[in-house]
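=== RUN LOG ===
request id: a7f3
mode: sequence -> structure
chains: 1
length: 326
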Amino acid sequence: MAAPATLMKPSTHAAAPRQNRMTLSSITSGVIEAPYRLLVHGRDGVGKSTFGSNAPAPVFLGTEDGTGHLDVARFPAPETWEDVLDAIRTLTADSGGFKTLVIDSIDWAEPLLWKQVCAAAGVDGIEEVGGGYGKGYTAALDGWRALLAALERLQAVRGMHVVLLAHSVIKKFANPEGEDYERYVIAMHDKSAALVRQWAKGVYFAQFETFAVAKKKGEKVKGVSTGARLLWTQPSAAFDAKDRYFLPEHVPLDWEDFDAAVKAASPTDPEALTAEIRRKAELVGGEVGAKALAAFERHASDPIALAKINDRLNARLAEKREREEA
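=== RESULT ===
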C-alpha cells in the first residue's frame, strides 16, 4: 500500500519587509539633462522632415514617402503596428550609432494601429469596435501607451532624441470663453493626439512666416510669405503648441538654431545668476528694477524662475539702450 502523500505545511518564514525607496536621503534637485522629446506638426512641404534630418545622427521610421529627397538612414516602411514597435525595440537593443529617432509621420502610423485594433475585435472598421460610440478610439489608446513606453525605454537605455513629425489640419475649437474659432491641430484623433501631446516636452507648429498687406485703401488684405520657415513654440488661438524648453515665441525651423536656443535658455546655477540679476536690476533702475529684485528674493533658489527674471531684465536693458541711442 502506497504511503500517504506528505501534506504541505504552510511556510513559517515571514515575507521580507518592503523597503521604502522614498526617503529624504533619496531626494535630488537640479535640472535633469535628458534627450529631446519633440512633436513638430505643420502643413506639407514646410520642412519638417528636413528639420529632423539635421538632428544628430538621425534614423527615420517613415510611414509615408516624405524623405526620398533626403540623404538619410531609414528603416523599411512599416506595414503593421508591430513593425513600428519592432524598430524601436531594435534601437533599444543596439542603437547602431544613431542618436535620434525620427518618426515621419506619427499621424500616418495611426491607421496601422487601427488595423490591429480592428483585427483583435474581429471588425472591419475602427468605428465598429465594441459596438461603436468611440470605443475603438479608446481601445487604440493602449497601443499608443505601448509605443510611448517603448520610446521612454529607448531614451532611458540609449539616450536618443525622439522627434515625432505630424501633419496639421484645421479644426474648429469649442471656446468656453467666447465664440468658437478654427486653429491648426495635429492630424490625429483627438484622444490619441492628446496622449502623444502630453508625452512630448515640446510641441511646435512649423509654418512659413507670413504677414498681411493691403495695397490700396479698401482692398482685400492678402497674406504674403517672407519665405522664412519658423517653429512657433507658444500656444495660440491659431495653432496648438506647448514648450518646456523655455524658448522664445518662435525660432527658425532649423535643428542647429533650435538646439542653440534651448541651450541659451537653459537655466544655469542660481549662484551664477545672482550677481548678474542684481547688476542688471540696478542698471534698469526704477520700479522695474525694484520688482526684479523683489522677485529675485522670492525665487532665490529656483534656477528656472531666475532665468526668466534675467531674460526680462535683458529685454528692459535692450529697450533702454534703444532709447538712449535714438
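=== NOTES ===
Residues 135-158 form the longest helix (24 residues).
The radius of gyration is 26 Å.
=== END ===
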